[in-house]
């Protein structure tokens, strides 16, 4: 028994993340609202809503402690507009026509108020414009209910998200309104094949996005314990809560809908016992019931059961819950063993009595009206039992899908579920027809008790729903407050808005001033008469600024800034504190600086948010022109975007150093104790321990704290702005500063290791740069990572924050493949030209959502990797290590073992390069570990490279075939699925890292398609932990 604050379910519920907390909401206060005698059924006049008696009206004095006051106060203040993503229009499945309306009724009932509903079709791809529209007006985004977590749909649009709401991960993160997933379900069939790898990766990335929204911006509720268990396993970091489908609450939401059919005294004679409605789903019958012989056996048993029920006085209805549910109907029509009625629900069809058609138009309310007339409803579809249950009609779950079994168990009555599939039924037990007859007879003999059990179970489900609504209410209040602030701001003079600044300095040179130490060596007089955009406290050095940009607005400190800056400076303030979602800064400006707003001295800028405060959303695109600025983790990006918005022809960035000068990150006087305390007083966790104050600030600049990558954001923004504003030039003044800096020491920020000697030769950086330019040495669309990504995604499930690295990333194709699979993807390469091209291709811009590194893509040597110990969960190195000088191999092995914690996929060529290349007339040797005197043994058994990677006890006999693969064509079958088996995963001596060695000169795609070694090897869990 699972005890829930004094209440208990009659059957155990599988443990799942978030389930206990959700069910713990069942308490006496909430239950009090549902203990009153049900309202006598009457005609439901007018549109159905909570108006008959809302939860807040019923809970009344029982809530003496005011626990539900936040919920009820939210409704009393008004809910504004809710965007509802659900099925719209005429549905082939009757349940899908009732579900959206019931969901909206539930929201209205528990909040005690009706929002303005903006309806969206959930299966139509959600666009950036949809997100913009919701951000402009929506108090909340409601999604569901229904079995939306169904990743097996073959439709191409499902590759967008991996589930039935085709919303891209970036759009899902972009909603500023809270996103409520209401009673959605995991809808996969038993024994269903896995979806395509790309679709599954997209689905897991969607779950990761929902997890990123979980702190105040996203709430996921699932409708059965079956779904909770499945999704909790897929996304351990995603908070989940139980919420039954709104259709199970219909009689609570509107008491006049409650059925009393079960309480009517049976009459003697034909049909006197009432209506038995039966529905058998026809889709995926092979998965539901098994092979054709089993399907026929089930149909025969159902016919025998229904014939017996008819003989016992039941009126039998065969219900087509979906238009395709006709197998049982056709069988009964063929045998004509007993009379029955056929009920269809879809619009513009007919209701049939026997073989005679009778016209009958049915909308969603008619579906409800029909089920109110039923005594017992038996169905294999979820809503075929949930809708009748919600109306207080007895139900029998015909189990062909785990969701209907789970529903019966969740409401405390597993005896109301009967397994249909012969292969899954208990051997030696009663036959199917006999078991169904026993369940029906038990209901018939205990009608009053069954009705009381239905009412009691619904009360408990309603109490859970009330607790979920209470959980959501604060997010709605915050969002309503933000929208009110936005509206108040828009009513003020036009000069207070960002649009007033658009094109104000068209064609001008605009200087963007950062806080770097180098700015302190520029005489402020240099900027006199120029258009300048500074950040934060830059006015402490350059006082006559044209614009000053900031992301925080503390009233007392800002008054001092206003006074120091003078009347010539326009202050541009982001509406969200620290650039986060919300309108805190805007409210502060309206409350404390109304006069300055009206005078145009302060402009509150709306913005697109790409910071850790915005669900980890990374900078990948610009907001619409004129509306908003970009905000990232550094104010410098907002300032650069503002310069482009002002109409600049040339943007010159000054003081954006990202380096230390004489050990200092900022010009003298930029920070004082107050400004440092404002952001850096609390300890920050960096890769090298906890830091505060100036050390924390320097670590932040270096990318050593959190998911911050300032260089990445600036470079991405530059490319985006130049694409939007053709001809715009953006350069940094800092690299050209030399005058006055003689004798000063420049160094990397704290926490950034120096780059070691390059791979191969002391001039390897230059060599590979020139090779790339002269010979197109790197292939932009070839990578082992692309083939590995789906296998790694399956292995790690929906875990978020998994950092992977491509060691020798070339043009970043593999890094993108990892990012597309939902990983934090990084890459390093010795060729700066390759990194530059990768960035030009738009790659390497989606890392660092859960940890710090200076950039997603970096020029670096494997001999000195700029990452902390065990920074990466897994790494890939393909066709790289053969380019090492043998003397460098120990250092590289040590470095890679240091930064990669769990898995390394290693491919090393053991043959000379396929084509010789030359520079300056000299032919180059690039496969250096091959061209040593014992090259045939060097990476093989007993060779120097082999010994550095493995201890002697790590290597098994079969591994020798793996090491010879690529040199000996006769051994290629060693990695084939029909061959001896997967390669050996061995332990390196320097770290707990699993190495997979597969030596090949084959192309990545054909190699992975030919061999299933990676997937097979990864199932050997003993070697992975």
From TrEMBL:
Lineage: superkingdom = Eukaryota
Q: Its Gene Ontology molecular function terms?
A: S-adenosylmethionine-dependent methyltransferase activity
Q: Name one Pfam family in it.
A: Methyltransf_11
- For the Methyltransferase type domain, which residue ranges apply? 806-901
Note the Gene3D superfamilies from the entry: Vaccinia Virus protein VP39
SUPFAM superfamilies from the UniProt entry: S-adenosyl-L-methionine-dependent methyltransferases
What's the protein here called? Methyltransferase type 11 domain-containing protein
């Amino acid at each position: 028994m699972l005890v829930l604050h004094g209440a208990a379910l009659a059957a155990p519920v599988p443990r799942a993340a978030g389930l206990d907390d959700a069910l713990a909401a069942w308490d006496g206060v909430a239950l009090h609202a549902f203990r009153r005698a049900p309202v006598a059924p009457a005609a439901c006049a007018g549109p159905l809503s909570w108006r008959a008696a809302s939860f807040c009206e019923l809970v009344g004095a029982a809530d003496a402690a005011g626990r539900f006051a936040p919920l009820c106060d939210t409704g009393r203040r008004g809910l504004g507009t809710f965007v509802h993503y659900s099925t719209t229009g005429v549905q082939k499945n009757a349940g899908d026509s009732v579900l959206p309306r019931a969901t909206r009724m539930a929201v209205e009932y528990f909040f005690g108020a009706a929002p303005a509903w903006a309806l969206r079709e959930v299966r139509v791809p959600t666009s950036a414009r949809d997100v913009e529209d919701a951000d402009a007006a929506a108090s909340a985004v409601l999604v569901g209910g229904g079995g939306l977590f169904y990743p097996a749909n073959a439709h191409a649009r499902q590759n967008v998200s991996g589930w039935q709401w085709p919303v891209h991960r970036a759009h899902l993160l972009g909603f500023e309104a809270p996103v409520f997933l209401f009673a959605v379900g995991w809808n996969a069939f038993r024994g269903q094949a896995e979806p395509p790898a790309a679709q599954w990766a997209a689905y897991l990335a969607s779950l990761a996005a929902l997890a990123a929204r979980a702190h105040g911006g996203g709430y996921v509720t699932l409708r059965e314990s079956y779904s909770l268990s499945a999704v909790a396993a897929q996304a351990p970091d995603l908070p989940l809560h139980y919420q039954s489908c709104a259709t199970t609450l219909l009689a609570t939401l509107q008491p006049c809908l409650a059925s009393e059919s079960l309480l009517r005294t049976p009459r003697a004679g034909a049909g006197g016992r009432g209506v038995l409605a039966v529905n058998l789903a026809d889709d995926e019958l092979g998965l539901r019931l098994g092979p054709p012989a089993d399907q026929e056996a089930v149909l025969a048993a159902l016919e025998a059961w229904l014939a017996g029920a008819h003989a016992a006085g039941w009126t039998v209805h065969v219900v087509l819950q979906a238009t395709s549910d006709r197998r049982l109907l056709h069988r009964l029509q063929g045998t004509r063993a007993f009379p029955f009625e056929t009920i269809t629900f879809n619009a513009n069809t007919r209701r049939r009595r026997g073989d005679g058609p009778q016209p009958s138009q049915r909308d969603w309310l008619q579906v409800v009206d029909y089920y109110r007339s039923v005594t017992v409803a038996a169905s294999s579809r979820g809503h075929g039992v949930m809708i009748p249950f919600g109306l207080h009609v007895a139900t029998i779950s015909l189990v062909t899908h785990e969701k209907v079994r789970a529903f019966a168990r969740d409401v405390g009555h597993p005896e109301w579920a009967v397994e249909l599939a012969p292969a899954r039924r208990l051997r030696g037990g009663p036959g199917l027809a006999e078991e169904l007859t026993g369940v029906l007879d038990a209901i018939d003999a205990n009608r009053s008790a069954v009705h009381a059990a239905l009412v009691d179970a619904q009360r408990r489900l309603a109490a859970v729903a009330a607790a979920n609504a209470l959980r959501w209410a604060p997010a709605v209040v915050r969002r309503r407050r933000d929208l009110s602030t936005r509206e108040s701001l828009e009513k003020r003079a036009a000069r207070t808005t960002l649009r007033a600044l658009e094109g104000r300095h068209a064609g001008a040179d605009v200087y963007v001033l950062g806080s770097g130490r180098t700015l302190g060596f520029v005489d402020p007089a240099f900027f006199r008469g120029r258009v300048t955009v500074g950040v934060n406290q830059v006015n402490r050095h350059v006082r006559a600024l044209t614009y000053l940009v900031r992301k925080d607005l503390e009233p007392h400190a800002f008054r001092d800034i206003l006074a120091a800056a003078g009347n010539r400076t326009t202050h541009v303030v982001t509406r969200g504190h620290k650039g986060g979602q919300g309108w805190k800064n805007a409210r502060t400006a309206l409350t404390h600086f109304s006069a300055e707003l009206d005078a145009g001295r302060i402009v509150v800028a709306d913005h697109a948010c790409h910071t850790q405060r915005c669900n980890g959303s990374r900078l990948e695109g610009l907001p619409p022109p004129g509306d908003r600025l970009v905000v990232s983790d550094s104010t410098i990006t907002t300032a650069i975007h503002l310069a482009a918005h002002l109409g600049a022809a040339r943007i010159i960035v000054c003081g954006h150093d990202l380096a230390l000068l004489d050990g200092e990150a900022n010009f003298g006087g930029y920070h004082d104790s107050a400004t440092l305390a404002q952001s850096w007083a609390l300890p920050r966790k960096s890769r090298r321990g906890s830091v505060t104050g100036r050390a924390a600030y320097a670590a932040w600049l270096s990318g050593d704290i959190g998911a911050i990558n300032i260089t990445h954001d600036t470079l991405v923004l530059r490319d985006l702005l130049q694409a939007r504003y053709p001809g715009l030039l953006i350069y940094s003044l800092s690299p050209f500063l030399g005058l006055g800096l003689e004798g000063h020491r420049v160094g990397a920020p704290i926490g950034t290791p120096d780059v070691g000697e390059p791979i191969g030769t002391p001039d390897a950086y230059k060599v590979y740069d020139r090779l790339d330019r002269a010979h197109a040495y790197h292939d932009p669309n070839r990578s082992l990572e692309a083939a590995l990504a789906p296998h790694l995604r399956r292995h790690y499930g929906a875990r978020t924050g998994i950092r992977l690295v491509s060691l020798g990333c070339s043009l970043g194709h593999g890094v993108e493949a990892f990012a597309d699979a939902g990983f934090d993807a990084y890459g390093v390469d010795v060729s700066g030209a390759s990194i530059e091209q990768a960035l030009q291709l738009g790659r390497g811009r989606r890392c660092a959502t859960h940890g710090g590194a200076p950039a997603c893509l970096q020029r670096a040597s494997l001999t000195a990797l700029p990452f902390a110990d065990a920074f990466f969960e897994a790494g890939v190195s393909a066709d790289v290590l053969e380019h090492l000088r043998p003397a460098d191999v120990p250092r590289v092995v040590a470095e890679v073992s240091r930064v990669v914690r769990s898995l390394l996929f290693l491919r090393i060529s053991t043959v000379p390069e396929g084509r010789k290349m030359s520079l300056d007339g000299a032919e180059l040797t690039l496969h250096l570990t091959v061209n040593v005197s014992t090259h045939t043994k060097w990476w093989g058994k007993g060779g120097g490279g082999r010994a550095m990677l493995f201890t002697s006890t790590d290597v098994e006999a079969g591994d020798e075939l793996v090491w010879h693969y690529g040199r000996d064509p006769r051994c290629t079958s060693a990695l084939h699925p029909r061959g001896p088996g997967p390669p050996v995963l061995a332990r390196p001596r320097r770290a707990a890292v699993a190495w997979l060695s597969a030596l090949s000169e084959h192309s990545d795609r054909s190699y992975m398609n030919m061999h299933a070694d990676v997937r097979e090897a990864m199932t050997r869990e003993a070697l992975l932990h």
